[in-house]
Specification:
6 helices; D-Maltodextrin-Binding Protein, domain 2; single chain
Amino acid sequence: MRSFLTAPDMFIVIIPKNSRLECCRQIGQEIADKNDSKLIELRGEDIPFFCNELINQGKNAIGIIPEDLFEEFRIGNPRNNLSIFKRVIWNEGIFGKPTLCLLGPESKNLEKGDYKVVIDSKYKKISKCYLNRLEKQGYSFQKIYVRGSCEEMFLNGMCDLIIDIVLTGNSAKKAGLAVYDKIFSSDIALIGGKNENL
């Protein structure tokens, strides 16, 4: 495998607009600059779909995103033409990388019962797979999907549990939440065609 910073032909590099994903943007910018490639900025969760469509059109394209966003796409699109051809270790946060977690009140434990759980909608498919496994063990969940604001929903008594990304853990701690379980940890994924030679 060649260095991920060189490529044989002109290609399109797709990076996230989100300022919190600056590390992905830096990698993408470096690749684009080194290879005189076109750079496109999209919402992170749209990158796998866009990259897959470009590849289906016969174009060379790579996307740089957190691995959880690729996993979310992969679950919903099992017949896609993408794969991860390089991972860049994230190496920050309390778990060493952003981690999708099940969180609940600090003073309690997860026991079998009925729960109202708020889920960041970016992780709907990963969360559904995870909760389905717990439901087979006797838990029951009413699922509420939101675009952010998970901790606020908990603080205002609108749910019992949340599923969201934990990096530093500061916002969870401030809301009185503890990590009950780690669901999925992410490195930075460079995605492209399944036969990519980058």
